[in-house]
Amino acid sequence: MSETDLMTLEQLLAELGGVSRNTFYRWRQLGKGPRSLRLPNGQLRFRRQDVRAWLDVLIEDAA
């Protein structure tokens, strides 16, 4: 896994069209957000492949 495969929370929110941090954390509480990695310093990272898979599921559910 390369460093470019991982996204910060800010990068993820920007790619989602500016979703707010509060909305994202609400999704996480409800178990509706993408899979994530928690680094030892507490920061979240997201694998691009996990984000794509999460978005694909959302598209299929809406169809």
Strand order, sheet with most strands: 1-3-2
Q: Mean pLDDT, nearest integer?
A: 90
H and E order: EHHEEH
Number of helical runs?
3
What is the β-strand count?
3
Structure write-up:
- By secondary structure, the chain is of the alpha+beta class.
- It has one domain.
- 49% of the residues lie in helices and 14% in strands.
- The chain contains 3 helices and 3 strands, in the order βααββα.
- A 3-stranded antiparallel beta sheet has the order 1-3-2.
- Strand 2 and strand 3 (44-47) form a beta hairpin.
Record the SSE blueprint.
Blueprint: E1 6-8, H1 9-15, H2 21-29, E2 37-38, E3 44-47, H3 48-62
Antiparallel strand pairs: 1-3, 2-3
Short recap of the structure:
This protein is of the alpha+beta class and 63 residues long. Helices cover 49% and strands 14% of the residues. It has one domain (3-62).
Give the tags:
single chain, 63 residues, 3 helices, 14% strand
